[in-house]
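Hi U.,

Before I forget, here's the chain from the pilot set. I'm dumping it here mostly so it's searchable later in email.
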Amino acid sequence: MTVKSIEDISLTGKRVFLRVDLNVPLAKSENGAPRVSDDARIQAALPTIRHCVENGARLVVGSHLGRPKGKVKKELSLEPVGAHLAELLGQEVRLTDEPVGDGARKVVADLREGQVALLENLRFDPGEEGNDEGFARELASYADVYINDAFGTAHRAHASTAGMVPFVAESGVGFVMLKEIEFLSRLLDDVERPYLAVLGGAKVSDKIEVLQSLLERVDSIIIGGAMANTFLEAQGKKLGKSLVESEKLMVARSFLREADKRGVTVRLPIDLVCATGLDSETGTAASVDEVPADQMALDVGPETARGFADEIARARTIFWNGPMGVFEKAPFAAGTLAVAAAVADNKRALSVVGGGDSAAAVAQAGVADKVSHVSTGGGASLEYIQGVALPGIKALSDQ
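Structure:
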């Protein structure tokens, strides 16, 4: 799919609707007011925002925050996000009191070249997630140019990500989307081999489609996290109180047979870090054949981590999505951090980390700048590497 870059579009004096991902975590400041606690997504959007401002656009920024489900929820207002963005830009950001309506329309109409307005949380209106044509047309009425830079929502056919595009004269993508398309497309091309996929997370049901798709592309697959428990139990292991999707055991067996038929190596844990629960202060490594009946697997074990690191070191193309354990808990973080370090250490490989927890892991390990690309979208990156046409990109390529 061919899309136009923001650099190929004249912005001066034009009203530009910029869809970005400002869905950031909030915390309470000392005075009890909400504040942005992690501005990574705002920082990612800054180059595109600054490009618009410096080129004299009358900029209308749109984003969602949280899951208000079509209702106005004060705690999910973009007000603290707008204040933080204004601080970073060093100029006023005018927040509308609603996503669409007379108030929002007046704020947009009053914009001058280089000025910025931020629409209130788009998901306060049910028309956003419902991709309602009326809502999409109203958003489009704010703009001469539409730019999508929100890769994390590109797999959603919402009004602001896809629905409004046909009603705007000119459209394209910002710098975040350009980089995502560039790196993720390389995983679909004729890659340097061995090509390794590292998949983790909780559920087979969340990732079986991408696993099956990867069988057609990769040479080997590492499976960790609670998802690995289901595969191990499918092989006859007893996993104590570990999270296992019993209804997916046949799916897991079928996948392993298909991988064997295709000559794709599937590496599962050989030892696990076990404990009685998530709040345990320590865990104990046990062979996958000796998991205590009263305990659960919460991370891959040290032998597994070393084996996974060796496999990663041999690869020349790496895609990683999903943690190896409950890495947000210190006793169960070692496996995920070991994978992060191994991916970063392999300087000869094209390495793409697929958003979400994996992105948090490379940041926690301090190696985010040592991998080729850290995606801003977990679900979107998974669908992209399956070859799925993402609605937020397809809408632009259809123009």
